[in-house]
Write a structure and sequence with these properties.
By secondary structure, the chain is of the alpha/beta class. 37% of the residues lie in helices and 22% in strands. The protein folds into 2 domains: 46 residues, no CATH class; 228 residues, Rossmann fold (3-Layer(aba) Sandwich). Helix 1 packs antiparallel against helix 2 and helix 2 crosses helix 3.
C-alpha cells in the first residue's frame, strides 16, 4: 500500500518500524520515541515523519462498507445512564430496517481512541448481518471522539479503566433490557476493545452469551472461571505483544471448560481488520468477519 501524500510503500517498511508503530499507538512510546526509532530504518528520501503520516488511519479515502444512509438499516444516537462509570455514555445504535420483533444485540467496542468512523462502520455492518448493534464512545465524558485517532488516543489515556469498563457494561445491560431486544447479548472488540470484550465476559457472566475479541489482551487467569460466554478469539500472526498472553489464557479456558475457538490469521499484523490503515489485510479480515457473524448467529439467534 502506498500513501498518496507521502509516496511511501508501507509494504517495504522495515519490520522494526511496525513494532515501533504498535508501541506508539498503544501509548508505550510517545511521538518523539517513534520518530527517533524510525529514523534508524529510513532509506532514500524516506523520513520518519513521512512514515508516521503514511501509517495513520485515512478515513477520507477509506472504503466505507455500509454507508450511514444505507436503506438496509436504521441508526440513531442514544444516551445510556452509567452510574458506576462516567455517568452517561453516548452510543451509535443500528438495526435492520425491516426487522420485526425482537433482535439479539451486539456491542461493538472501539480501539483505544474512541468511537471513530471505522468502528461506526463496523456497527452498521453488524446491523446488516441481522443484529441490533451498538457502539459506545468511551470518550463521551470528554466530549466524544475528537475527529482524529491521535487526539482520541491522548484523550482516552486520561480516563480511568474501571469507569470505562463500567460504561461498556452499562451499554451491554442497556441493549439487553430494551423491549426490542431478545435479551441475548454478544460483544466484538478490536485491540483495546478486544481486551474489553474478554473482561466484559468476566464481568457479565451469564448475562453475555458470545464474545469475539480481535487481538485483545487476556483477562486474569483467576477471573476466567466467571466467563459463561462462548468465545471466538482472533489473533494476528505477527503480534508478539498480544500473542504472548495466549498460552496462559488457553490453559485457563480449557481448565474451566469454557467454550471457545481460536484462530491466528496468516500474514497479518495487529490491527489487520481495520480497513483504514496499512495494516489492513483484506482477505483475512473478510474471513475473520465471516467467522464473527457465524459465531453470533450460532450463539445469539438461538432460544
Amino acid at each position: 500500500m502506498s500513501d498518496v501524500n507521502t509516496g511511501i510503500n508501507t509494504k517495504e517498511l522495515h519490520p522494526e518500524i511496525w513494532k515501533l508503530f504498535d508501541r506508539y499507538v498503544h501509548g508505550l512510546i510517545d511521538r518523539r520515541g517513534f520518530l527517533d526509532g524510525a529514523t534508524r530504518y529510513t532509506v532514500g528520501s524516506m523520513t520518519a515523519v513521512g512514515i508516521l503520516e503514511a501509517l495513520r488511519p485515512n478515513y477520507a479515502e477509506a472504503q466505507i462498507q455500509v454507508q450511514p444512509n444505507d436503506s438496509r438499516i436504521k441508526t440513531e444516537k442514544v444516551e445510556i445512564k452509567s452510574p458506576n462509570g462516567y455517568g452517561m455514555v453516548r452510543a451509535l445504535l443500528a438495526r435492520p430496517a425491516n426487522a420485526s420483533g425482537r433482535l439479539p444485540a451486539v456491542v461493538v467496542i472501539h480501539e483505544n481512541r474512541g468511537l471513530n468512523p471505522h468502528i461506526e462502520d463496523v456497527v452498521r455492518r453488524a446491523a446488516v448481518a441481522g443484529f441490533m448493534a451498538i457502539g459506545p464512545d468511551a470518550l463521551t465524558s470528554l466530549g466524544g471522539y475528537p475527529g482524529t485517532d491521535e487526539a482520541g488516543a491522548e484523550m482516552q489515556r486520561k480516563l480511568e479503566q474501571p469507569k470505562m469498563m463500567a460504561d461498556f457494561v452499562a451499554t451491554a445491560q442497556y441493549v439487553k433490557g430494551r423491549p426490542d431486544s431478545t435479551g441475548r447479548v454478544g460483544a466484538v472488540g478490536f485491540c483495546f476493545g478486544g481486551g474489553v470484550v474478554n473482561n466484559m465476559a468476566v464481568m457479565l457472566g451469564a448475562d453475555m452469551q458470545a464474545g469475539v475479541p480481535f487481538y485483545g489482551g487476556a483477562p486474569r487467569a483467576e477471573d476466567v472461571p466467571k466467563i459463561k460466554a462462548a468465545l471466538l478469539i482472533n489473533y494476528a500472526a505477527d503480534d508478539e505483544r498480544i500473542n504472548a498472553q495466549w498460552p496462559a489464557y488457553e490453559a485457563a479456558l480449557k481448565a474451566n471448560r469454557i467454550a471457545y475457538e481460536q484462530f491466528t490469521y496468516p500474514g497479518t499484523q495487529h490491527g489487520f481488520h481495520n480497513d483504514t490503515t496499512p495494516r489492513f489485510n483484506k482477505e483475512q479480515a473478510a474471513v475473520a468477519w465471516q467467522r464473527t457473524v457465524a459465531h453470533f448467529n450460532k450463539y445469539l439467534k438461538t432460544t
